Amino acid sequence: MSNLPSPQSPDRADQGYPRKPRVAVVFGGRSSEHGVSVVTAASVLAAIDRDKYDVLPIGITTEGRWALTADAPERMAIADRRMPTVEQVTDHEGAVVLPVDPASREVVYTEAGAVPKALGEVDVVFPMLHGPYGEDGTLQGLLELSGVPYVGAGVLASAVGMDKEYMKRVFTSFGLAVGPYTVLRPREWEQDRDAARAKVTAFAAEHGWPVFVKPARAGSSFGITKVDGPEGLDAAIAEARRHDPKVIVEALLSGREIECGVLEFEDGPRASVPAEIPPVTSHAFYDFEAKYIDSAEGIVPAPLTDEQTAEVRRLAVEAFEAASCEGLVRADFFLLDSGEFVINEINTMPGFTPISMYPRMWQESGVSYPELIDLLIQAALRRSTGLR
Fold first, then answer.
1. CA neighbours within 13 Å on the CB side: how many for 95?
2. b/e map of 1-39 (b: 16 or more CB within 10 Å)?
3. Pick from 227, 240, 302, 228: which is nearest to 271 by CA?
4. Separation between Cα atoms, residue 323 and residue 346, nearest integer Å
5. Fewer beta carbons within 10 Å, N or C terminal of the chain?
6. Three-state secondary structure call for residue 159
């Protein structure tokens, strides 16, 4: 344990200076998006202002252990088309424990056969987790119980932003247009597959093939299959259910894919310039490999009219507010051939990799990558935990 990080520097208030806020960057996790989270955290660790913040990197392994990791973003990159893992930057066998007393923000390192070591207080958590067990409200609930402020959406908004069915229900209730969809709940598929297949084929008969079969609660395009006919349904549903027992089936929408970032400032949320995801000719759709391995390029800013740009920015902020989001959101839309914008989904913790669209859109809007990180941390520090 000799090379563990030292507790945060002593409070400099005695010398007339407040101590730097301490940021715990938490990444990895148990979801299938573990590697994306590691790459995302690497970019944040490399860019965060060390003159302004103390940083404590904490990785969550695929098994769920909270591990103390090296502050080594260079070891957290995609290599040979393979995603990195928390284990690559974990040099200790022990575990990190968050405070269980809201009156204390002391983080402790424990290891079998050794005295627990205090690592100092944490002022804010930057949860760079994607997918279930981190982006879906579970981690946010833990941090609320611990009394530690955190970057991004709260428990409700995180859960809504992860579950595509209830996200669409919320948007519809606020008057936002969504595309046609149907849902296969776990019991439907497990108890009567013929009826479940019939439900999807009836949906396709109404809205047309192909359809997209997706896990209801996952991101980064994991588990998504474009299905051209009934013969492909079983395999597509099985693939989606590898990630989530609840499956959502969406109709194909004919139009352009437009994204817009929303960022919380002191006076409220604002939208970035939008981006466009052009058709990916080497892939069936904008899937995981197109996003992260083959680095498909988005167009920033999107080639839209002034009226279209203003409209999608307005709708992005409306989606942010409808889901009670905080901090940040990437809102994804389809611009239909009719000229209507239809919201596809929001992402309450979008990727922060060097090629991710969210930071690129804000860069084009005049907010640099380090400034973006700083604004998110400052927004989290202004908020308390609990009801607000």
1. 11
2. eeeebeebeeeeeeeeeeebbbbbbbbbbbbbbbbbbbb
3. 302
4. 9
5. C
6. helix
The angle formed by the CA atoms of residues 221, 246 and 166, to the nearest 5 degrees, is 80
Determine the residue type at 386.
Answer: G
Edge-to-edge strands, sheet with 22-28: 66-68, 54-60, 22-28, 124-128
Contact 236/184 with Cβ under 8 angstroms? Answer: no
Q: What phi, psi does 339 have (nearest 5°)?
A: 95, -5
- Tell me how far apart the alpha carbons of residues 290 and 355 are, in angstroms, rounded to a whole number: 11
Dist. CA 63–CA 4, nearest whole Å: 22
Contact 18, 12 (CB under 8 A): yes
Inter-axis angle of helices 233-241 and 193-207, to 10 degrees?
Answer: 110
32 and 63 in contact (C-beta within 8 Å)? no
First to last CA, the chain: 40
SS3 269: strand
Q: Dihedral, CA atoms, 216, 76, 97, 149, nearest 10 degrees?
A: -70
**What is the number of other CB atoms lying within 10 angstroms of the CB of residue 165?**
17
Helices assigned H by DSSP within the chain: 34-47, 138-146, 155-162, 164-173, 186-191, 193-207, 233-241, 288, 306-322, 357-364, 369-382
Q: Report how far apart, in Å, the C-alpha atoms of 212 and of each of 24, 171, 225, 256 are.
A: 37, 20, 6, 16
pLDDT at residue 296, as a whole number: 56
Coil/strand/helix, residue 90:
strand
